[in-house]
Design brief:
single chain; disordered N terminus
């Protein structure tokens, strides 16, 4: 690889992939800043430096673009399967996964997306379903896959990884997420960390295989 290629890794990417990434980045920024109704396909295309038709050729509809934009932001800042090390035991990996999820859940982006889905509940009820499928459901699946791998290794006694993943993720929301949802004063960072550690420890204890 040449020095120029090393400094410009995007140089070798297919042009369509580069355009798709730019459209997603523009969509995330505009949806979060202006809401669903306030972010037109024309504005997203202009911000990405492409035509309106190019946006539709990549994503089909504005609704699909919204769902994939949410997914891309969740992967970037939250529970990304590519960032989970299946070789690591639960005591090591689960606290890391839990903190990533909490950071995503309590961040301004999640708060804004929740507000968008709520404000559009009557006019665009499908947005809530898209957010659920591309956000929480994808995070759940990533955690479920990790839990399944740990069950196969005999480290956890889990027969329903999907069920267990929802248990963990919903438990992590706690008081901190409710405070964000209702615009209350946030909990201090040390209180959130202590709660996360306790949730993970409780979860591991509940699913630790019984001694033979």
């Amino acid at each position: 690889m040449s020095a120029i290629e090393a400094k410009n890794p995007a140089r070798g990417r297919p042009r369509s992939e580069t355009k798709r990434k730019k459209i997603l980045e523009a969509a995330v920024d505009l949806f979060l800043a202006n809401g669903y109704e306030g972010a037109s396909v024309e504005d997203i295309a202009a911000a990405a430096g492409v035509s309106r038709q190019t946006v539709y050729s990549h994503f089909g509809s504005k609704e699909d673009l919204f769902g994939l934009a949410v997914s891309s932001r969740c992967k970037k800042s939250g529970v990304d399967p590519d960032r989970i090390d299946y070789s690591q035991p639960p005591e090591v990996m689960l606290p890391e996964i839990a903190r990533r999820f909490a950071t995503l859940l309590l961040g301004e982006d999640a708060k804004r997306v929740n507000a968008i889905c709520t404000s559009c509940a009557d006019t665009h009820p499908e947005l809530g379903q898209l957010f659920f499928e591309h956000g929480p459901c994808q995070a759940k699946q990533a955690v479920a896959d990790y839990l399944a791998s740990q069950a196969q290794r005999g480290r956890l006694a889990i027969t329903n990884p999907g069920f267990a993943a929802w248990q963990l993720l919903c438990m992590l929301k706690g008081e901190a997420q409710l405070r964000v949802q209702f615009n209350c004063e946030p909990l201090p960072a040390d209180a959130i960390d202590a709660y996360i550690d306790d949730c993970v420890a409780m979860f591991i204890r509940a699913y630790t295989p019984a001694a033979v």
